[in-house]
Amino acid sequence: MKVLQFPLARITIGFVSGLLFAFYLHPPLVAVIVILLTAMSLFGVLFFLSKKSNTRTAYFGIATYFLSFIIGTTTQVTHTDYFQKDNYTHNTNAFEQPHSISVVVREKLKSSLFSDRYIVLVNHINEKEQSGRLLLNVQKIHLNPVFAAGTPLLIKGTLSRNKQPMNPNQFDYGKYLENKQIYAQLFAAGDEIKIGNKTAKNIWYYSSKLRTRIIRNLEKNNFNKTELNVAIALIMGQQQDISPDIIRDYQYAGAVHILSVSGLHIGFILLFVTYILKPIPNTKKGSFLKLLLILASLSIFGIIAGLAPSVVRSVTMFSFVAIGNHLRRSVNIYHTLLVSVLLILFFEPSFLFDVGFQLSYIALFFIIWLQPLLASVWQPENKASKYVWNILTVSLAAQIGTLPLSIYYFHQFPGLFFVTNLIIIPVLSFIMIVGVLVMILAAFDLIPVFLSHLLETSIYYLNKIINAIASIEQFIIQDIPLNLYLLLSSYLALISLVIWFKKPTFHKLAIALTCIIVVQFSCFTTHWNVQNEQEFIVFNSRKNTLITERNGANIIVYANDSLLKTAQENSLIKSYRIGNLSTLRQKKELRNFLYFKGEKIFIVDHSGVYPKNINPDVIVLTQSSKINMDRLLQIMKPKLVVADASNFKSIQKQWKASCEKQKIPFHATGEKGFYKLN
Q1: Which has the closest alpha carbon to 239: 373, 115, 356, 368?
Q2: What digits encode the pLDDT tens for the residues 543-566?
Q3: pTM of the prediction?
Q4: How far is the C-alpha of 35 from the C-alpha of 149, rounded, in Å?
Q5: How distant, in Å, are the alpha carbons of 473, 606, 630, 657 from that of 609?
Q6: 484-502 and 506-531 are packed helices; what angle lies between their axes, rounded to 10 degrees?
Q7: C-alpha to C-alpha distance for 121 and 110, rounded to whole angstroms
Q8: Residue 113 backbone zone (phi > 0: left; psi -120 to 50: alpha; other: beta)
Q9: From CA 414, how far away is CA 473, in angstroms rounded?
Q10: Which of 110, 182, 121 is nearest to 146 (CA)?
Q11: How many angstroms separate the Cα of 445 from the Cα of each of 50, 215, 220, 233, 442?
Q12: CA 494 to chain centre
């Protein structure tokens, strides 16, 4: 694989390895700095010796890669807010009682059912200077104001740490926030928030203000709300207001990537700006002016689009392409890719853990690496056929590259992705050209009605096409299980097979077959582990009691009749069965007595009736049973008491006190998450 022969590739791998090492192991800053100075000294000595002898030794190479590794480690540690002394996470008192918290709004997120959500930067807690990012949840009311970026707020409240998943195999939202360096949330009602006078006028403020101005001017031109929200996503990368139904259609059709500004969009911008600047002469000064204008245009567009990881990646890459063209040098796309990775992660290492960043880079790498191999299978002479074939091979290369990672994160595969890309790319090209022009004119409130109507109509038909493709549900493969071991072994096999196809040799074939055996071994090991597991789960379900028993890959659900009817599509059960590569085999009405691996489990329902002649190992309290807890414990003498989330919190406190009095363990799923017996 020639890519790995580039010294820059090895340095990048070392740097990324250092980021991962620091992210998972949290080495102390002092130790990292000492090792960094040592690595730099060793590198300097070996560099001097190699230069003196005019030869590069293996020791110099090892020192280079070790230095890149430790630079990655240092970058991760120094950019992690948690390690900053003034970060709010070190103020434990802020998590225990209300304080006056001064923050500045950084970004508005998609609203939830009950709250408007913002990422805010902490300035002070009471009078003490603090730093860090918070997720602010403002309770929805009819006249809720929308806080723009840069708005200073003073809030009376208590910080809440990110919670762990409360149910098995559930999406870890707390970890997702931590990857974005948000370690706590703040919940507030409108009357607990005071707006300050001094707006923080930074790059985020002006970016938000420009986006707001564009959107308001488009709304004034009676731009349909549905099409407007899609236009804002396509052109400016802001998906906050798109309806869930439209997002689902784009996901099912395999076109959700176009709603996030990425290389496709930035490429259109580069071509558009280059075309506009054609009248400028190609003199030394003229070429330099063109370069400055192109770089400025790409940067401004990236800022307007919110500097998401995919946007930053694309802007950085195409900036290098523009610089290479200006210098009249052929741009090695692999070098450009690697340099952009290094630069982006050096300034923002948290992007490495962003799903969009991972998918966009893997897609781009496979387009560069695999697409020429696919395109060589057939060389059409007709221009139309060649155009269609290029779109198909690019789409197929990107889809092959991102397939394992997409399944790992989203557990589904859109079978008609190639049809979608074949149809929408020409349409998207037109929409991007008209859309960019409309957005520029909207910034100055100079939108011609015919142009606005043209963009609106184009997006309307784009949505119709996407909806028609997404409605063919037979080609949407859902609920595909894939764990980390299968993900890594899949990529190992995929890469080895492509290497063999590019230049077949017996040695490469042997490696590819070995990697396929590794995939098979991963599958066998995973299924063997699943088949030999047994567990009993009491879920943290608020509305209804939900209990499952799993024997190998077979799941039995115990619940009331209303929940059993929708058990197959229930989100809690769905996550659990996909995560455990299992199948829902039986649905049974909830009953008082259950037995699991010799353990006797008694479930107390709303009636509060219980027998007096049994001694269960576990009691499960449900539906706020009206019982005398002290008497229940004395009669039944359980080893453990579990209260699920269908009980009122006030009653659970009383039950917990009774259990503590009699020294019986008490597990409330609302506090500790699901209960597992295995």
Answers
A1: 356
A2: 889 999 999 999 999 998 888 888
A3: 0.86
A4: 40
A5: 47, 8, 15, 21
A6: 160
A7: 18
A8: alpha
A9: 9
A10: 110
A11: 63, 10, 9, 20, 5
A12: 23
